[in-house]
Amino acid sequence: MADSFNATGTGLAYRLTAANTDGTGVNNSDGGKLWLPIWSGEVLHAYDEYNVFEGLVDHKTISSGKQMLFPRTGTVDLKAQWGAGEELVGGTDAKSSQFAVTLDNRPMAAHFELDNIDMMITQWEYRAELARQAGNVLASTRDKQIGSYIATAALQSALTGIAGSPAGYGETITNMGMEDAIDKLGGQIYCSPLLQAAGAPSGDTWNIRNGNAGAGDGTQGAVITADQRTAAALKILEMIEANLVHLQEINAPLDQIYCAVSPKTFQEIRALGVARTAAHAVDAQPMFGGVAAAGGLGAPFTQGLNSLTDTLTYMGVIIMKSNHCPIVNYAAGAIGEGTGGLKYDKDWANAGVKGIMWQRSCVAALSLQGLKVDTVDDVRRNTTFTVASMMNGTGVMRPELSAIFVDAISSADTNDGTVLAADVRNAVFGTTFVSEYTEAT
Question: What are the sequence ranges of the domains in the chain?
Fold first, then answer.
């Protein structure tokens, strides 16, 4: 079989003219479509440039097949007093098993149609822009999928043998008024109605959340103020601290910890301490202005930090901004598999999610090696149709290493000042909670 990418191949061909109306505008003997492999490489380069979350979780690439197995070890037991003649049995969970992470059923595809393919062949600027757009579309979708799965991991119960927090946290998140953010489900869900103000659009008003009118002071319907936005930004930092304590209590890894929020919330965190009124200016001391008095956090305010790649570091946690945080409701199929199992397309806005925090081992991302590019001449339409597609998969590995920050839920509200674990889960999944573990036997 001839190589379809070969310059003298018979499988692919250049269009000879832009006015291909008679069905004879291609000539296989004049050479193959050399632009196709070049363009696919440019798409991959753009994908790697725009993709963010995939490099911040455990990412593996397979060259063939549908599934990859990740090891899950048993737990080590302790015998505090080993008596003479006493037999040790090796713990109650001695078996070693595996997690199976599977590729999605269908690939995701970026596609476009051109009426003059010669522009792709002869003009690099034209081809590069289409490659940038295709790579950006694929990377953005993949970011949304992984972000959704990080939040999904926070809703799962920790594996057997994982120590929980010793402080007696139960199945209820307490969020009376605008007070403490208390962790739940082993330190994975943090809740405060005050987070309504985090990243809220200008002029937005308070709504009832879980029996609390606005910030808990009866201000339902009132416009969210600058002071309340500042308090919400501080609450996110408090939740970061609480999750760090949780990770220490369960002896979890404490390297490469990330927190992602919306660009507006990121800006509000960065502007903590910046005077908004004349009265505030008297004692203004920016937290993230890079000044020595504030510990050198952030960067000088002459530096914009306006790129999506800019970050802040707080107590060792890298705070990043993303347009792809799971803070909205995804319709079925909007970012991937969503019908039935709701793999990616969950209702995060229903739970009032405002941010996610994770360590890279919480989620595994799987990719099938390579980018598949197909193109076809449509003589009847006088166009060339091109598709770039990728196969990916995602799985939960260590849910105790992920957390979500919520403003209390807008559905399944109660009036007693508490949110149950089931309420948060149901707000995301509807009425059926879906477990994301797949353990290979």
Answer: 165-368+392-440
